[in-house]
Write a structure and sequence with these properties.
The protein is mainly α and about 280 residues long. It has 13 helices and 2 strands; from the N terminus they run ααααααααββααααα. Helix 5 crosses helix 6 and helix 10 crosses helix 13.
Length: about 280
């Protein structure tokens, strides 16, 4: 059984006659402007229907997307050639949906989905618009999947794209089962910042340990690990043998290791005392 087309009351022979008159009229004339107003008024319900379908999963108000779609309608009216053999409905649908798609696509996205998923997203919205027009209601995900000949979960994923790419306010409340309500910013953890803090703490600790070493030991540590000199180069600079440099370096590392172990032990005892 053929589905009833609910747009028959819009795309009538009378509308085709008005379109032909509009295309033949001279630009800038009052009669052309009046025809344009009548055409826009007649076709706007169709623009709203397309906008409603494409905005189904968008956070943008339908009114905003309808305004964008009306730009496509204006372009369709100005560029349509009744003698080209294409129906105005087909031509207008292409420009209206194209204008809305570009608007949605150009919006800033916090999360980029694969290109194939974006293409499926727009195909899904086309099917939604067509089936809504034919059925007189919003189609189910199963009906959309049957039209596209793809799994239902793919349709669901495609419809989630717009929601996923909307930024979340850091002041927005977030709750988890069994936990108190907090805002997102309180849950954000910058691992790089904590790593920076740890590195700074390590640097301070090492500097303190180095300051307590004898100068001969501290010198070989600095030349080896801070100036990146070889033992041969250090020996030449200090006027000693490479074997002496090796012994001093080994001794210096042993002393630093003992000092660091003692420091960690003291920190652990301090933490334990603070807990009690």
């Amino acid at each position: 059984m053929a589905r009833e087309n609910s747009n028959d009351h819009i795309f009538t022979p009378e509308l085709d006659q008005m379109l032909a008159q509009y295309a033949a009229s001279d630009p800038g004339t009052r009669s052309r402007d009046r025809l344009r107003e009548h055409l826009v008024e007649a076709v706007m319900p169709y623009v709203k229907k397309i906008a409603g379908g494409l905005a189904r999963r968008s956070s943008d108000p339908v009114e905003d997307i309808t305004q964008v779609g009306s730009i496509g309608l204006m372009k369709a009216l100005d560029k349509y050639n009744p003698n080209a053999g294409t129906s105005f409905k087909t031509y207008a649908t292409y420009l209206i949906t194209g204008e809305i798609r570009h608007y949605l696509r150009d919006k800033s996205s916090m999360i980029k989905a694969p290109r194939q998923m974006y293409e499926l997203y727009y195909r899904v919205n086309q099917i939604i618009q067509r089936l809504s027009d034919e059925l007189g209601r919003m189609p189910t995900d199963l009906e959309i999947a049957e039209e596209l000949q793809c799994p239902v979960n793919k349709v669901t994923q495609a419809q989630e794209i717009d929601r996923r790419r909307q930024p979340i306010s850091l002041d927005q409340f977030a709750t988890q089962e069994g936990s108190s309500e907090t805002v997102y910013i309180e849950r954000l953890v910058d691992d790089r910042y904590y790593q920076f803090l740890l590195n700074q703490e390590d640097k301070i600790t090492i500097d303190n340990v180095l300051a307590k070493l004898k100068e001969e030991y501290r010198t070989v540590i600095v030349m080896t690990y801070f100036e990146d000199l070889s033992q041969t180069e250090i020996a030449q600079k200090l006027g000693i043998s490479q074997m002496q440099v090796s012994r001093r370096l080994r001794k210096a590392l042993d002393l630093m290791s003992q000092a660091l172990s003692k420091s960690e032990s003291n920190q652990g005892q301090s933490t334990e005392r603070s807990r009690t």
